[in-house]
């Protein structure tokens, strides 16, 4: 990754670059560790296994965040799987440098078996499922009984099932996914969405009785930080 991306606070478009793996002693990696501690506190009874990640708008660092979180959880000997449920604009294939095929939509349509669906990253140490072939019937896919059964199976086989989903304001997909999740972590990037839109997105989740575990602030420029990385990740509980 170039110094320009590190010091000028620009978003790093290299999805396969996980700062928690490449810079484990950085300020940002430490911030991720704090997120995991807070997640542990939120999950003190062990009832939260399927965690959804969404945001107000696109480009708020959601996919980058969930990928780094999955890596750190796997480093703590947790069995983790990451699903790309952003079926309209999938990104997880970029994280793992694999083709976007043999994915979720292919499995749900009966084209592949479960054994072909789940992939493993030797570099990052956790399993993943890519979105698969594009479809115009996104809502039908997300609301299908087979989708619910898949989440149920993953719930029984993994410690954490992490769901990367589209922004709340753009489409309604995140609300459909939330029906199969134990809770949602809401991503807010500094300077991307206006406060009114953020409030609207959170209210949409609450109106649909979605359990918001917490919110995460991303892409915060650090002035003269010890490690010079341009993003900060802070966590807070949602009342």
List keywords for this structure.
single chain; disordered N terminus; alpha/beta; globular; 38% helix; 17% strand; Rossmann fold; 239 residues
CATH H level: which superfamily?
A: P-loop containing nucleotide triphosphate hydrolases
CATH classification, class level: Alpha Beta
Determine the fraction of residues in helical runs and give it as a percent range.
25-40%
Reading the helices and strands in chain order gives: HHHEHEHHHEEHHEHEHEE
Look at the helices and sheets and give the structural class: alpha/beta
Mean pLDDT: 86
Rg result: 17 Å
Strand order of the largest sheet: 3-4-2-5-1-6-7-8
CATH topology: Rossmann fold
The beta-strand count equals: 8
Proportion in β-strands: 15-25%
Largest sheet, strands/sense/barrel: 8 strands, mixed
pLDDT < 50 stretches: 1-12, 225-232
Distance between the termini: 38 Å
CATH architecture: 3-Layer(aba) Sandwich
């Amino acid at each position: 990754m170039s110094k320009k991306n590190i010091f000028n606070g620009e978003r790093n478009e290299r999805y396969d670059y996980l700062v928690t793996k490449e810079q484990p002693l950085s300020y940002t990696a430490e911030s991720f560790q704090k997120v995991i501690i807070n997640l542990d506190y939120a999950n003190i009874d062990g009832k939260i296994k399927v965690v959804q990640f969404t945001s107000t708008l696109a480009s708020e660092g959601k996919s980058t965040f969930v990928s780094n979180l999955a890596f750190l959880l796997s480093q703590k000997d947790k069995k983790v799987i990451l699903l790309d449920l952003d079926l309209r604009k999938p990104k997880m294939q970029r994280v793992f440098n694999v083709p976007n095929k043999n994915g979720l939509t292919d499995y749900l349509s009966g084209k592949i078996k479960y054994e072909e669906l789940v992939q493993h990253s030797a570099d990052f140490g956790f399993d993943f499922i890519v979105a698969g072939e594009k479809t115009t019937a996104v809502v039908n896919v997300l609301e299908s009984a087979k989708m619910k059964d898949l989440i149920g199976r993953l719930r029984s086989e993994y410690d954490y099932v992490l769901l990367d989903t589209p922004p709340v304001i753009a489409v309604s997909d995140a609300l459909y996914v939330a029906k199969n999740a134990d809770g949602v972590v809401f991503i807010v990037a500094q300077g991307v969405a206006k406060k009114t839109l953020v409030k609207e997105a959170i209210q949409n989740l609450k109106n649909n009785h979605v359990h918001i575990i917490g919110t995460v602030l991303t892409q915060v420029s650090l002035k003269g930080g010890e490690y010079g990385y341009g993003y900060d990740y802070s966590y807070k509980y949602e009342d």
